[in-house]
Amino acid sequence: MQALKGFKDILPDEARLWQRVEGTARDIFRRFGFEEIKVPILEKTGLFARSIGEATDIVEKEMYTFSDRNGESITMRPEGTAPVLRAFIEHALHLRRPINRLFTVGPMFRHERPQKGRLRQFHQLSVEALGADHPRLDAEVIAMARQLLVELGLKAELQLNSLGCPDCRPAYRAKLVEFLSGHREQLCEDCRRRVESNPLRVLDCKSANCRRLNAEAPAILGSLCAPCDQHLARVRQDLDALQIPYTMNPFMVRGLDYYTRTTFELLTDALGAQSAVGAGGRYDGLVKQLGGPDLPGIGFAMGLERLVLLLQEQEQAAAAGPDLFLACLGEPAAAYGFTLLQKCRLAGLSALMDIQGRGLKSQMKQADRLHARHVLIIGEDELNAGQAVLRNLDSKEERQVALDDELTALLPLLQS
RNA sequence: GUGGGCGUGGCUCAGUUGGUUAGAGCACCGGGUUGUGGCCCCGGAGGUCGUGGGUUCAAGUCCCAUCGCUCACCCCA
């Protein structure tokens, strides 16, 4: 028996890093005033078709979609924004406060071919700021995304672009299609198809020929309408004011249809082909499109697997051992020790003991391998005398400690 | 969906042109020190060599198939 392709167990050594990532994220998000929202993993299929876009790869060939026992088509979420917006609309959260700053964490599912940094079940931190189209909100969200990388000690490049809005993008798109059609023979096979299906995606092509051509293609930044242009300028102003470095990338494109105006990515060169650790952008028409009020929003997603991979390449966090290991000799001592163990745990200490009745030497070895800070040795003599030996494994210091039900002598020594 | 690389104890790997009982390091267990860890020494347990066929006197090694893992394309966090 083994796990499904693209599905992975996260063993304790790795789980420690996950806790660090999530813990750091929660702390930063709290400081930025973002609140957690928990949403279901399964949704009606239509939610994703309507938001991500019918013609995207995700919807066309990557979703885990099946019918439940009532014959309804349901889908395991491939991303986090759609479910959060559904919940936002369903519970009319916009009536509770003018701007909702929300985040959610959890598994997402896409049936792709697995590779480094890409699994079929993967995990994202998904962040949404809903209710304002002020460029300052863009800067705030971008600053928060970057801060997570900073506080995890990870290096990443911030790239910025604008995709325009329904007023200016169609005109740009037409201009681009005209240009690309004129140079059709210079495009790679894939891109020739893209000219019809999704021309903006051509800009993102990695083939050398296409890149060369793209350099001469009309740039979106030169085609923005005045409001979009001004929006971008103000976002840049605010990023500068916060001293957040970034580079403009006019070729950056989104794989999901709902993005408008500001888009950004956090890129690393340490993950092979999967260079984006986080990405996001504005989606001003999406809430309305999903049947809600006409409210703007901006958000981003971070890939947890990718953050953990980066952390692993940097350093291995040492496991923190238990505060106390109880070494008991003989059954009477073990029986007493077991109750002592419980008291220690209820008092807030992490504590372990041997339950296989092994010799002292073996138990000391166990304690050492667990990186325990102290060992409390209880044999028959100690049991009778109401005194035990407490050994500090780092300093090798040993001292007699009186045993009593309240652990009055023991606890202070361990909690220091 | 397409292409490359790789499958040998829990982990990382070695294994000559096919040739005796398939090895090492780490990890694990025990002993040296019968109530004191890390270092050292000694010993132990653990592998149908991914699986199924084929070639051969003989296959971990060669051939075919299959499954799995992995990297890349595609796409994306």
CATH architecture of the largest domain: 2-Layer Sandwich
List unreliable stretches of 5+ residues.
Answer: none
CATH topology title of the largest domain:
BirA Bifunctional Protein, domain 2
The percent range for strand residues is 15-25%
User: Percent of residues in helical segments?
Assistant: 25-40%
Mean pLDDT over all positions: 91
> What's the overall geometry?
elongated
Count of spatially separate domains = 2
Structure description:
- The model has no long low-confidence stretch (mean pLDDT 91).
- The longest helix has 20 residues, at 12-31.
- The chain has helices at residues 12-31, 45-52, 57-62, 81-90, 135-151, 169-182, 189-197, 208-216, 226-241, 286-289, 304-314, 331-346, 360-369, 380-385, 410-415, and strands at residues 35-36, 42-44, 64-67, 73-76, 100-109, 121-130, 157-162, 247-248, 260-267, 276-282, 297-303, 324-328, 351-353, 374-378, 387-392, 398-402.
- α1 (12-31) packs antiparallel against α5, α1 (12-31) crosses α11 and α5 packs across α9 (226-241).
- It has 416 residues and is of the alpha+beta class.
- The protein has two domains: 12-168 and 224-314, BirA Bifunctional Protein, domain 2 (2-Layer Sandwich), CATH 3.30.930; 324-415, 3-Layer(aba) Sandwich (Rossmann fold).
- The chain has 15 helices and 16 strands.
- The two termini are 46 Å apart.
- An eight-stranded mixed sheet has the order 1-5-6-11-10-9-7-8.
- The protein binds one RNA strand of 77 nucleotides through residues 2, 5, 56-58, 61-62, 79, 108, 110, 112-118, 122-126, 190, 201, 206, 255-256, 265-266, 272-274, 276-280, 300-307, 327, 329, 359-369, 372, 375, 377, 379, 381, 389, 391, 393, 396, 398.
